[in-house]
Amino acid sequence: MSTTDDSPQHSGISVTEAAASEAISLLESEDMDTDIAGLRLYVQQGGCAGLSYGMRFDHEPEEDDTVYEHHGLRVFVDPASMNYIEGSVLDYEGGLQGEGFHVENPNVVSECGCGESFRT
């Protein structure tokens, strides 16, 4: 399944322009083809609240992935992770407190104190 939408509000996964720009720069620095490769966003067991986010670059999506494209960035999400992160927005924040990718997830009912894990 593939979805393309540059609007920040829709079901599935959305990506801000800042996050897409940063991820594309990182993909290009790894000499990955941004027309095929993308950012994998997934959920894994772990952290003090039970679940945590994971991200990595993949050369291509898996057969059962949902593929979203926002601002030129392809995002791959496996079916099991989608159950936890449907409706989320991936953003990139910079500044004095540190920089990095952040997932705004409407399904979260609680997060740990450090913000690294969550519970739905």
From TrEMBL:
GO molecular function: 2 iron, 2 sulfur cluster binding; 4 iron, 4 sulfur cluster binding; iron ion binding
Core domain segment(s): 13-116
PANTHER family: IRON-SULFUR CLUSTER ASSEMBLY 2 HOMOLOG, MITOCHONDRIAL
Domain of life: Archaea
Organism of this sequence: Halovenus carboxidivorans
Protein name from the UniProt record: Iron-sulfur cluster assembly accessory protein
Entry's Gene Ontology BP terms: iron-sulfur cluster assembly
